[in-house]
Amino acid sequence: QRRVHGIAKNSMDIEDINKDEQHTTKKVELAQIKHEEKEGLQKIYIKSFGCPHNFSDGEYMAGLLTAEGFKIVDTFEESEIVVLNSCTVKNPSQEAFVTLIRKAKEQNKPVIAAGCVPQAEQGLGDLEGCSVVGVLQISRIVEVVNETLKGHEVKLFDRNDLPRLDIPKIRKNKCVEIVPLSTGCLGQCTFCKTKQARGNLMSYEPSAIIERVKQVVSDENIIELWLTSEDSGSYGRDIGHSLPELCWEILKIIKPHNVIKIGMTNPPFILEHMEEMAAILNHPQVYSHMHIPVQTGSNNVLEAMIREYTIEDFNTLIDYLNQNVENITCLLYTSPSPRDLSTSRMPSSA
After folding, report:
1. pLDDT at residue 107, rounded to an integer
2. Which helix (H) or strand (E) holds 156?
């Protein structure tokens, strides 16, 4: 078995062919070889765990593989090769990912591991014998599958460029388009493995997102647009743009039946746009919903976590949104540890 860390040019690639007849013959031969390689190993099961961003990545991989002629199947049992798109936020998700790897190995099914777990834990023992598609390498899933079918172990971890938004995609929910805004974040939270996987903030240019939205809303089946990232509130800070600016631009081009849902945002960055975000959340084509993690009601714990805000900041944000956005739902928090209960100051409105 050979391990490939950056897929080299395949020996079957065609170079320097000048005559049309020769070129056509070589292409036909190459197509036949590829077909023979995939014969009996065409059914692929893709399982995604975790956040909407991860599910979007899984949908893109399904689209690329389908365009190449592979068949995406609904169950593990039907499959002959498995793509597991992992999440590292919660232990149960990671444990389920590892369990499926072991199950696939027991049944001698080739495994491609994707998502945050292999990116953040490259030395994880269960990844031995698996190919890996890093979080920013999803557009190369076809290459990785083809190499894996030849018995090669491929590991792609580079995080240099964002995947394009206009590559083929197969949605799990025909009515929902998940639109990635960025990857990574600006935080340095002490407990977060997602940061290790996704890295620093890399935002898509507004023009790329707008073009994707235009393409998507031409499909009358699409009703909801989920704007997602690891921290939506920080969108654009690395490229001189902002989430409110982007939302207003998107609202100009969507159809009357479309509705926008804005993904998770951390308190520090959304605080800067509190008034404008309230106006956006009151728009009839935007869900009055915000996913804002507080993590704990203790400033001591927040400081130890390097969360870069205080419970007073969180209270200010929640109180403002509750007072200025009709019927808003916005909340995600975890209880403080018992020794910090005396300093806990959760907002009464939450």
Report:
1. 96
2. strand 153-156
